Amino acid sequence: MTHTRRIHILDPRLANQIAAGEVVERPASVVKELVENAIDAGSQRIEIDLESGGARLIRVRDDGRGIDQEDLPLALSRHATSKIASLDDLEGVDSLGFRGEALASISSVSRLELISNTHDEPSDGWRVVAEGRQMEPRVTPAPHPRGSSVVVRDLFFNTPARRKFLRTEKTEFGHVEEAFRRLALSRYDIGWILRHNQKVVHQLRAGDASTSMERRVGALLGRKFLENALHVDIEATGLRLWGWVGLPTHSRAQADQQYFFVNGRVVRDRLVAHAVRQAYRDVMFHGRHPVFVLYLELDPHVVDVNVHPTKHEVRFRDGRLVHDFLFSSLHRALADVRPNASSTEGGDEATPSTDATTPTAAEASAGQAEPRWQQQGMALAAGQERERPAAHRVREFMAGYRALHPEHEASLLTPQPQEAAGEAPGTPAPPASSSPAMAETDDTQAPPLGYAVAQLHGVYILSQTERGLVVVDMHAAHERITYERMKQQVHGDGQALGRLQTQPLLVPVSIAASAREVETAENERATFERLGVELDVAGPETLLVRQVPVLLGNADVEALIHDMLGDLERFGRSDRLEVHINELLSSMACHGSVRANRRLTVPEMNALLRDMERTERSGQCNHGRPTWTEMSMHELDKLFLRGQ
Fold first, then answer.
1. Does the pLDDT at position 327 exceed 50?
2. d(Cα 234, Cα 495) in Å, to the nearest integer?
3. Measured between alpha carbons, how far is 85 from 593 in angstroms, rounded to an integer?
4. Model pLDDT for residues 479-507, shown as the tens digit of each residue
5. Which among 159, 174, 205 is the end of a domain?
6. Handedness of CA 382, 388, 393, 397 (dihedral sign)
């Protein structure tokens, strides 16, 4: 093997093939690049045709602005683009493709044909062809409607080593379909068609945002996704987050339904992933992954999309602000999920939707974007408003319950003492702001979780609701209630750990640290103090821990500080200390909650149901397991073949 010793200019064809190694990984990469160009061209309809998973043929056709005849040869040149002209353009990119590498790279490893027309007359089209070799492209007439078509045949025909890395036709088409799904979710105002081997796989109509978003999400991810998702729309300090986040009970074994878009560009970003993971931390069962389709909109000048050739990654100018905004918004949305009476007939689960007012700049910068949430059932998630049952129907329901339990009639309108629910001594009292459920004072509105009728095997509470039957795991539910009250006592408002009791260490803990960690510790001194940690710099590579929260007296302080410094450096914030404290509180809550096989009276069971309706995250226990489920009358009738 010979090695070149002299510096020389690479052959253009070789340079393009090297670039193709970064941009063109498989047929799905080609589809992504070509479709992004079609979107940037202002297309309203995009058609994608494939053969053999895209290895034999990829055709992308659009109705956009097209390319002028004299620009067609230049379009296949490397670093040729119409989307940026100066550094200012690069610092505020608002288009999807801008590097000018895609067509040149693709044409170097395939047989590429580009046909385009900038006029309304179909006979005005022109064609340019490149077949994986260095040549001067020749422009010839070719009839074509207004817009462009790019045809890519025999991908990697001249690089057999790379062609061997392609998988089966089914696998490659699966990757293309996933790329198509992401692109179609990025633009609801564009109509889409995907065909494979002359068979239509997806056909999606265009529409305005108000009518097409839910239809598009349902078509690509299934109606079950929408029926088990919260709709969010939050704005703060130039940031807007909107879309859908799945309920904790609707999770996946793998992270295959997670779509995040920044200014319409699908991205996979560590900062975003960390913020979402934190928001679900307290409600997601171990080993499961949340589902979401989320859109972040912000000024293009404060986000750098020119980080990677495939443009899958971005860099935010103020990463801490973005991270805190995402975390606090999703954390609040998930916390405000309560059992809800606004639901549909026929057994659909209640799925709240959220809307928000605009927080102040100070709140957003501190990670405290706390909007005013309004729970509305699955109505908005399904795109329709549902009517509540008539008042007379609720009266009948409550009258029937009173007839079943006449001795409990007085307790229906009287809030129960917390001790009635079986709380262990020392369990924190409910928040002073807690108020009885509306049903306790309004005879026309039954509580969302209804009223208890029985206890099953000392484990489950059976409750009659307006719609049917609710089954509650009493230990799991009470564990969450106790846990949330303990967290409120310890953490205060949830944003600062100001109420933590701290203790000075008799012997300060000396920690060996890198120069970068020492610098982070100095810059974040106020953050550590707010968390109850006194951290001093004792040398260029030495830190001293003088004080920690009492609850963490037996923790591995050195490992905890290193982890916190790492988080602060990467994400701008750290919740490691809060996680450790919450793990202790969770264990305490588990031991302090009502145990299985304990007999509860009807008033005790109802008190527990009312507490669930008032408690954040009451749909899951501390370990992420569901605390209750519901069967509607429609489902029960179907089970027993009634009306059939």
1. yes
2. 18
3. 65
4. 898 888 878 877 765 444 445 678 888 88
5. 205
6. positive
Going by the DSSP 8-state scheme, the letter that residue 348 receives in this structure is P
Q: Of 157, 179, 205, which one is at a domain's C-terminal end? A: 205
More confident residue, 590 or 144: 144
For residue 636, the one-letter residue type is L
Comparing CA positions, the residue from 275, 262, 353 lying closest to residue 311 is: 262
- Name the residue range of residue 267's domain: 222-382
Q: How confident is the model at residue 597 (pLDDT cuts 50, 70, 90)?
A: confident
| Helix or strand holding residue 502 (H, E) | strand 502-512
Whether residue 506 is found in the same domain as residue 426: yes
Say if residue 446 is in the same domain as residue 552: yes
Give the C-alpha separation, 339 to 232, whole Å: 18
Looking up tokens 């992954």, which residue turns up? Answer: 289
45-51 and 191-196: which strand pairing? parallel
Read off the amino acid at residue 534. Answer: E
pLDDT of the residue at 294: 96
Task: Provide CB contacts within 8 A for 554, sequence distance 6+.
Answer: none
CATH code at position 331: 3.30.230.10
* DSSP letters spanning 177-242: HHHHHHHHHH-TTSEEEEEETTEEEEEE----HHHHHHHHHHHHH-HHHHHTEEEEEEEETTEEEE
What is this structure's pTM?
0.72
Q: Are residues 600 and 485 in the same domain?
A: yes
Instruction: Say how far apart CA 185 and CA 126 lie, in whole Å.
Output: 32
Q: Tell me the per-residue pLDDT of 50-105, one tens digit each, with 9 for 90 and over.
A: 999 999 999 999 999 999 998 888 888 776 666 555 666 556 556 675 555 788 88
Statement: residue 380 has pLDDT above 50? no
Name the pairing type of β-strands 258-262 and 292-297. Answer: parallel
CB 176 within 8 A of CB 31: yes
Identify the CATH number of the domain in which residue 501 sits.
Answer: 3.30.1370.100
Residue 525: half-sphere exposure toward Cβ, Cα within 13 Å: 10
Q: Which residues contact 468 (CB under 8 A, 6 or more apart)?
A: 347, 630, 631, 632, 633, 634, 635, 636
Task: Specify if 2 maps to a domain.
Answer: no
Question: Does residue 215 fall inside a structural domain?
Answer: no
Which of 258, 261, 233, 264 lies closest to 330 in space, CA to CA?
233
User: What value does the CA radius of gyration of the chain take, rounded to a whole number of Å?
Assistant: 30
For residues 20 and 309, give the distance between their C-alpha atoms in angstroms, rounded to a whole number. 10
Identify whether residues 166 and 282 lie together within a single domain.
Answer: no
Same domain, yes or no, for 399 and 368? no
Q: Which of 628, 614, 610, 599 shows the shortest CA–CA distance to 413?
A: 610
